[in-house]
Specification:
alpha+beta, globular, 325 residues, 5 helices, 14% helix, 4-stranded mixed beta sheet, paralog of FGE (formylglycine-generating enzyme), 16% strand
Length: 325
């Protein structure tokens, strides 16, 4: 086994927390929708690279089935170095660049040679006194949480909705990260080819989770709960039933073609994602709409304060990459 292959397999083990030992002389890869009335977009700002960070290792623990983990193999990506080959549950396989030596944690991607960004939309865990971690329900607002919640980025889990920009920033900080600045987020979304959508310049159905559904989920919950129709966009917006309805929120990476050569997933559709803005901005659209407030990676909602949350608001985190030695 070559040194390069050993290094790649080690990175694979770190990402999957699975044994990678194989027979002598062989490498063994472990198998592992009516738009919501958010208002008009507004100007955004941000600068790449600004905040210090501390790395917080996270455990891989999630109940229920998960998509196969990534496969690693030697190769030459667009900028040289080993590549990460995703084995998708649907769509075509895709090869993604890995930085070597690693300058970001395995659950983050290197962007512009200086920024790490979560590969997947964030979920939340709380650290127990026993040292174990306990997942927080992705369908529950954290307003009533008494324990400290920490952001993690994992494939094949339901990402956290119902979260404000204030709470998202706090959860990123608890993991030694921060919310992404506007230009950092947009750069990661557009990918190395600088396209309007992560996968290309034109919208394509079923590439990302943005196809919508016939009946708006808030309207469906309003009907089921017999709420007054004139209160639908108030009392109904944070109900945990919404993102559990059919054809709404999907697990991270489930739409495996919703990515780019940075290896980040679901930056368009699935959930809105909070970015760093004192006035409050979330980006990328969600499963019912990725065009109302700008198209694809240009989507930005500025109508709400940073303390706002509803079923559609999620996030991911950023941090500075380790310096080149």
């Amino acid at each position: 086994m070559t040194v390069a292959t050993d290094r790649i397999l080690l990175t694979s083990c770190l990402l999957t927390l699975a044994a990678c030992a194989g027979p002598t002389g062989q490498s063994q890869v472990v198998a592992p929708k009516t738009a919501q009335p958010h208002d008009r977009p507004g100007p955004s700002s941000g600068k790449l690279g600004a905040t210090s960070r501390g790395v917080h290792a996270s455990h891989q623990a999630e109940a229920g089935p998960s998509p196969p983990p990534p496969r690693f193999r030697p190769g030459e990506g667009p900028e040289g170095g080993p590549t990460l080959e995703i084995d998708p549950t649907e769509g075509t396989a895709r090869t993604l660049l890995l930085d070597e030596p690693p300058r970001c944690p395995p659950d983050m991607a290197l962007v512009l040679d200086r920024l790490c960004i979560d590969r997947w939309e964030a979920s939340l865990v709380q650290d127990l006194p026993s040292g174990e971690e306990q997942p927080w329900s992705p369908y529950q607002s954290i307003d009533a949480a008494t324990a400290r919640l920490r952001a993690v980025s994992r494939a094949g889990v339901v990402p956290q909705g119902y979260i404000s920009g204030v709470a998202a920033a706090r959860a990123c900080a608890a993991s030694g990260k921060r919310l992404c600045a506007a230009d950092e987020w947009t750069t990661a979304c557009r990918g190395p080819r600088n396209t309007l959508y992560p996968y290309g310049s034109q919208h394509a159905r079923r590439r990302c989770n943005d196809d919508g559904r016939a009946l708006h989920p808030v309207a469906e919950v309003t009907e089921r709960l017999h709420l007054p129709p004139d209160r639908m966009w108030y009392e109904g917006m944070d109900h945990p039933m919404i993102n559990q309805l059919e054809n709404t929120l999907r697990k991270t990476g489930e739409r495996s073609d919703c990515t780019n050569d940075h290896g980040v997933f679901d930056m368009v559709g699935n959930l809105h994602e909070w970015t760093e803005d004192a006035s409050g901005t979330f980006r990328g659209g969600y499963y019912m709409d990725t065009r109302r407030n700008g198209e694809g990676c240009n989507y930005a909602t500025t109508a709400h304060s940073k303390s706002y949350h509803d079923y559609s608001t999620g996030f991911r985190c950023c941090m500075e990459a380790d310096p080149v030695e």
